[in-house]
Design goal:
Layout (H helix, E strand, L loop, with lengths): L1 H18 L1 H4 L3 E7 L6 H16 L2 E7 L4 H13 L4 E4 L4 H14 L2 E5 L5 H7 L9 E6 L2 H19 L8 E7 L5 H14 L5 E8 L4 H14 L5 E4 L2 H14 L8 E5 L3 H9 L4 E4 L4 H13 L5 H4 L2 E3 L3 E4 L3 H8 L27 H6 L8
Parallel strand pairs: 1-2, 1-3, 3-4, 4-5, 5-11, 6-7, 6-8, 8-9, 9-10
Antiparallel strand pairs: 10-12
Helix pairs in contact: 3-12, 4-5, 7-8, 9-10
């Protein structure tokens, strides 16, 4: 009797290993360090999109929010790495902090991936490139900031010329609200704006206001510009949050946005998308929200032996595009509800779809992955 019982237990255990390996396998673990408290407009969307991808790919995702200062980011980041996740993702790039994190990931076999910002210039000379100085640093994904600044300016200039929003002398006068002086991403976007303006003799830059990345400071900066430059045709801002502040300033300064001044921002923040529909904003350059999901797809494939670097390299440029009155309805029809869970991120993975020969992270591809019968 006892022998038969032992045999039955042994068969049951063997069957568990043979027919239910997923029940015993350890989930791939990823920790995302967010450089702001929970509830922020941009990072809140980012996190929701990443959670949707993690659920599809069966990844154990932990999100750690830090205060927007180096001390908090460093403390929270090191504590997260000490828990030894398989992968650690940061949404910023500060050489001193990232160097600290890279050394920590090297020591406990955690892989490092960064999003939203790719190191440039001096930053790159200090810390190197992925897989050079630090083997744990497998790659990163971010927008081309210079191109982002250029493309937003280009869209606004084309709209101004097409709709006749020019001065009596046919000149287009542009003012800008950029990030803080020490913001590398803001400075690169501003560089892109200036590059685009330099191409047209009938476009001039009136002034640039430096600002922290908040709606309140955007309102103050825009108010100063509205009061000073009554002949402004375009107000270019480095972020939607600043553009929304400019909308507040326009109301108090009697400026008719869309008629007197064309306003642009970056990030596709939900309220900014709504303001494009209303006509208060002319354009928003964005798409990096989906970077959260794409990054997990690349990490998933890498973890399962399909190295994204073979096709994309280790420094990957995020696909971006512009929303205007002409195409905003197409976007909101599909993604306006911000229910990122209806995207089937499994369909983007090479590992899970052997027929995929090249990654395609376009909006059109995302639309084609929508899960039938989805209900929030």
């Amino acid at each position: 009797m006892e022998d038969r019982l032992i045999k039955a237990v042994a068969i049951a255990i063997l069957s568990l290993f043979m027919y239910a390996p997923n029940a015993l396998a350890k989930k791939l673990s990823v920790t995302l360090l967010v450089p702001e408290p929970a509830g922020g407009s941009f990072w809140g969307q980012y996190v929701r999109c990443m959670r949707a991808a993690a659920e599809d790919l069966e990844i154990e995702l932990k999100v750690v929010n830090a205060q927007s200062n180096s001390y908090s980011i460093k403390r929270k980041g090191l504590a997260a790495i000490n828990e030894a996740p398989d992968y650690f993702i940061t949404g910023f790039f500060v050489p001193e902090l990232n160097s600290t994190f890279l050394k920590a990931t090297e020591s406990n076999n955690t892989k490092f991936f960064h999003i939203d910002v790719i190191p440039q210039g001096e930053q790159k000379s200090e810390i190197g490139r992925p897989r050079e100085k630090y083997s744990s640093w497998i790659g990163g994904m971010a927008q081309n900031n210079v191109n982002s600044g250029y493309q937003l300016a280009d869209a606004l200039i084309h709209i101004a010329k097409r709709t006749g929003k020019v001065g009596d002398d046919n000149m287009i006068r542009v003012a800008a609200i950029a990030g803080e002086d020490d913001s590398s991403s803001g400075n690169m976007k501003l560089q892109g704006l200036k590059r685009r303006i330099s191409l047209d003799s009938d476009v001039i830059l009136l002034d640039t206001k430096l600002s922290t990345w908040t709606r309140e400071t955007g309102e103050q900066s825009a108010s100063d510009l509205f009061e000073t430059y009554y002949d402004m045709n375009i107000l270019w801002t480095v972020a939607d949050e600043l553009a929304l502040g400019a909308i507040d300033a326009a109301e108090s300064n009697g400026v008719a946005l869309g008629k007197d001044v064309l306003l642009g921002g970056m990030a596709w923040a939900p309220e900014a998308v709504r303001q494009i529909e209303l006509g208060n904003m002319a354009a928003s350059w964005g798409g990096q929200i989906f970077e959260a999901g794409w990054a997990l797809v690349l990490i998933y494939d890498y973890h399962h032996g399909m190295d994204f670097a073979n096709e994309l390299g280790t420094e990957i440029t995020t696909p971006m595009s512009v929303l205007t009155k002409r195409n905003v309805a197409d976007y909101t029809e599909v993604f306006g509800d911000k229910e990122w869970a209806k995207i089937n991120f499994k369909k983007l993975s090479k590992k899970l779809n052997p027929n995929i020969k090249k990654y395609n992270f376009s909006l059109e591809t995302l639309k084609n992955t929508l899960q039938s019968g989805f209900t929030p």
